[in-house]
Write a structure and sequence with these properties.
The protein has a single domain, classed as PhyR, sigma-like (SL) domain (Butyryl-CoA Dehydrogenase, subunit A, domain 3), CATH 1.20.140. 70% of the residues lie in helices and 0% in strands. By secondary structure, the protein is mainly α. Helix 2 packs across helix 3, helix 2 packs parallel to helix 4 and helix 9 packs across helix 10.
Length: 161
């Protein structure tokens, strides 16, 4: 794949990719941006191996999800997700409304299992099909449906606390 072709395919996926990672990172935009950059570099390096057996965006999101999993494995075991990110620090006064708009949702997402969170973010934030989510997460469609169902239940419980 040429550099120009890669850029052509990546350009429309940059914002959805960042939004996906922002959801997985529970609103931590700095970490989401770092992971997006890492995923794009990995995708570019591996672009020669893209065979077109799936959609480019599915392939790219799979790489991004793997970057997220690698990141969570590197996080020190003694840190809880709540202590790990700067997203809960007070923002500058002029941006308080926008910074806290989704805080409750991100805090609830942070408290559910990663696979449930990934399935919910892909299904509800990115409007991906069950089949595409299964491909991105590397699991059967039935398992995706299970994670969506249990994730919705867990998310509802966390949001009503």
């Amino acid at each position: 794949m040429t550099r120009e072709r890669f850029i052509e395919l990546v350009r429309p996926e940059q914002e959805p990719l960042r939004r996906f990672l922002l959801g997985l990172c529970c609103g931590d935009s700095a970490t989401a941006d770092d992971l997006a950059q890492d995923a794009l570099v990995r995708a570019y390096v591996a672009s020669g191996s893209f065979m077109g057996l799936s959609k480019f965006r599915t392939w790219l999101f799979r790489i991004a999800y793997n970057c997220f999993i690698d990141h969570t494995r590197r996080r020190p075991a003694n840190l809880s997700p709540m202590e790990d990110g700067p997203e809960l620090k007070a923002p500058a006064p002029d941006s308080a409304d926008s910074a806290f708009r989704y805080q409750q949702l991100y805090m609830a997402l942070e408290r559910i299992p990663q696979k449930e969170r990934a399935a919910i973010v892909l299904f509800y934030f990115e409007d991906r099909s069950i089949k595409e989510i299964a491909s991105i997460l590397g699991m059967p469609a039935g398992t995706v449906k299970y994670h969506l169902s249990t994730g919705r239940t867990h998310l509802r419980e966390k949001l009503t606390l």
